[in-house]
Amino acid sequence: MTIPDDERRDDGGDAQHQRPRVVPGARKDTMMRVDYRRIFPEAAQAMGGLEQAVRDSSLEPALLELVRMRASQLNGCAYCLDMHSKDARARGESEQRLYVLSAWQEAPFYSERERAALAWCEALTLLGQSGAPDDVYERLAAQFDEQQIVALTLAIVAINGWNRFAVGLRPAVGDYVSPHDREHVAPGHPAGG
């Protein structure tokens, strides 16, 4: 991680030609630490089971992508942000809504249902700080039935789990191709039609 030019110390030199400072503890490489899917495939299958239960629910795929992205933003998970931004775009999500997702509370682009889901996502992702407050739950219950609340909670549990796999074990970021993106799916791939 480097410090942007506008945050560097001005010592009279040309900011564009200064060497960037490295932040202590920043990621130095992109090599995967452990290929968890190969080493423990049962774990990946179990996580996949959580995802399937969520997909089988009545929750809208677009809403789920927003929730997955918001949790991934909060957790600093580049791998999952890459994946879910591509999935959201392939499903028709606007770039504008993805760009301002981290400031969803101030942006006019989200429905009350989406706002309730995003607030619940933040409360559960930051559980140690928030404790899942009653007012956030009441807002959620006004927009979702009980089965949907359970499914949404499970989606948040799942993405937080995937975030911990990806941040901790560091799979390569950037190569993901959404199976929903028909323009970029390899011929013969089941999503390619």
Please describe what this structure looks like.
This protein starts with 35 loop residues before the first helix and ends in a 24-residue tail after the last helix. The chain is mostly helical and 193 residues long. It is 53% helix and 0% strand. Residues 1-24 and 185-193 have low confidence and may be disordered.
Summed up:
The chain is an all-alpha fold and 193 residues long.
Q: Key terms for this structure?
A:
193 residues; AhpD-like; 9 helices; disordered N terminus
What is the strand and helix layout of this fold?
Layout: H1 36-39, H2 41-55, H3 61-75, H4 78-90, H5 95-99, H6 112-125, H7 127-130, H8 134-141, H9 146-169
Helix pairs in contact: 2-9, 3-4, 3-6, 3-9, 6-8, 6-9
How big a fraction of the residues is strand? under 5%
Shape, per Cα inertia axes: globular
Please summarize the sheet with the most strands: none
CATH class: Mainly Alpha
CATH superfamily membership: AhpD-like
Our count of domains comes out at: 1
Roughly how much helix do the residues carry, as a percent range? 40-55%
Q: Can you tell me the CATH architecture?
A: Up-down Bundle
Alpha-carbon distance between the two ends: 40 Å
